[in-house]
Amino acid sequence: MVLALAEEIEMRKSELLDCARSDKNELIETIYFGGGTPSLLQIEDLRFLIDTVYSNYNVVENPEITVEANPDDLSKERIIELSNNRVNRLSIGIQSFFEDDLKLMNRAHNSEEAKKCLEFATRYFDNISIDLIYGIPNMTNEKWLQNIETALSFNIPHISSYALTVEPKTALYNFIKKGIIPQPNDELAQEHFQILVDKLSENEFIHYELSNFGKENYFSKNNSSYWLGKKYIGIGPSAHSYDGEKRSWNVSNNSLYIKSIQENKLPSETEILSKTDKYNEYVMTGLRTIWGISLDRIQNEFGKTYLNYLNQRAVKYIKEHLLFVDENILRTTKKGKFLSDGIASDLFLLNLE
Questions:
Q1: Binning pLDDT at 50, 70 and 90, where does residue 21 land?
Q2: Rg of the chain in Å (alpha carbons)
Q3: Rounded distance, CA 85 to CA 75, Å?
Q4: Among the four residues 77, 168, 176, 236, which has the most C-beta atoms within 10 Å?
Q5: What number is the average pLDDT over the span 296-301?
Q6: 23 has a pLDDT exceeding 80
Q7: What is the reported pLDDT for 140?
């Protein structure tokens, strides 16, 4: 698999190579190991893949290089090992600091491992993000606040936080189906979200995207690239890519992926985005972020028909104080943030093309 990943990295260098020296956007700014458990790779494998990127692409002087990991993967030795290589950012799936929550979500680590992991990680890494889950059934507001305060006690500069979702065929799904625990409650999730926003704001975090909070200079450069519409190349099974005009995605089957790479064929499908697709994506990502939707950009890039449609659809949300316009940028209010995905879907244009 590692050799196949390296081969795909090399096969796809032409996607950026032609413009690399004339267009700064063609430089590699971030390298992100995610989607699964990349921390299980040997350090030699991680180093080999990073070196392969460097030898095939133009990389900025100080790229953000992130490894996703779970607390049970991050022993003290492993953290030191990662810190002695080019990796300069960790994204750690803490989810909760409470034992009962972790059991309910069927996590492999326990509360003690979560805290120990952060204790060591903060000694060797400055740039750390953790994931926290809110809206867990039976979680009180006080307990959720304790989760946030525990995270803050480690001086973590970035927190990603998501409402609990129930996936079919999971232990959580079966507990709910059998009536052992209640369904996740939207009102509870919204309360938790507002507690999170208020508490992190008090501690100098910037709420720069719906689910992401970072201190100044600690926004995720990798994820910000998606939200700002930059190009990216995804390597490996199921990985997605975007070049500004089209999206592509690799086959999800490991064996088929490796076989295709060995035959020197890219195992991917491609979708060319229509003007309306691009408009809808910009509306979605714009409303989720502090950068909002530039009405000037809508007019310049998509035309007056799109601008008029957006303005008409936005009126009711402005009246309800869920959206506002400032310096020709459409943004969500504090009240509208939690509802931004639903609002965005109502601003989508479906039938113009």
A1: very low
A2: 21
A3: 16
A4: 236
A5: 97
A6: no
A7: 95
Of the candidates 46, 44, 14, 45, the one whose C-alpha atom is nearest the C-alpha of residue 32 is 46
Predicted local confidence at residue 17, as pLDDT = 62
Q: Are 133 and 161 in contact (CB under 8 A)?
A: yes
pTM here is 0.92
Which DSSP state fits 118?
H
**Are the CB atoms for 156 and 201 separated by under 8 Å?**
no
Helices (H), 105-264: 111-124, 141-153, 171-177, 186-202, 221-227, 254-262
> Is pLDDT above 60 for 337?
yes
DSSP assignment of 51-90 equals HHHHHHS-EEEEEEEEEEE-GGG--HHHHHHHHTSS--EE
Query: Amino acid letter at 346?
Result: D
Residues 30, 234 contacting (CB under 8 angstroms): no
Give the residue, 163 or 168, on which the prediction is more confident.
Answer: 163
- H or E element that contains 281: helix 275-288
How far is Cα of residue 6 from the mean position of the Cα atoms in its chain? 23
Q: How far apart are CA 319 and CA 254, in angstroms?
A: 50
**Residue-level pLDDT at 18:** 53
d(CA 129, CA 160) in angstroms, rounded, equals 7
Going across the sheet that includes 293-294, the strands are 293-294, 329-332, 323-326
Q: CA dihedral defined by 287, 291, 293, 299, rounded to 10 degrees?
A: -160
